[in-house]
Structures are given as structure tokens and as C-alpha cells.
Request: fold
Amino acid sequence: MDHPLSDLIEAKIAQAMRDGDFDDLEGAGKPLPPEDDPENALINRVVKQAGGAPEFVLLSRELARLRTELRETGDRTRRQEILKEMSMMDVRIALAKKAFR
Reply:
């Protein structure tokens, strides 16, 4: 069964081809790069282009922020809270890395 918008999509592509929108594209005539996850290649590319990152990368950024806050904080109570958050963050990063593979 075709997608309900297939005809519209095909018409838009044909018009873009007639208008030369696909001429001189970067990488034209070259093979596509190898893909580790072909089933999710499109969504992975869209997420990457939109500035997204795997969960473990985002968590690592948060861990770096916590480390900076820890260095700059003199309050003992807050330092203990940060250390607890950091230890939990380490576990979350490990789990996210495992899930990513």
C-alpha cells in the first residue's frame, strides 16, 4: 500500500529535478558512506543535523557541568549533593552507553 502523500512527494521531487535543485550536490556521483544502522539511517541523520546527540553524550555534558559547579562551590551541603548527582550520572551514562550499542 502506498503512502497517502506518495503522489505529492513524487510530484515535488520531479519539479525539483526540473528546476535543477539536485544539480551539483556535494558528493554527487560518489558512493554513499557506509551505515552502521541502516534501518535507522534517516532518523539518525536528521537527529544529528538537528544538533541531537545520543543520551550518553547529553549526560556526559551534564556531568561536566556538575564537575564545574563542584569546583566553584564552597558550600559543603551543596558539594555533597553534587557528588551524589555525579555518582548517579556515572551510572546513567554507563547504562545509556550500553543501550546505545
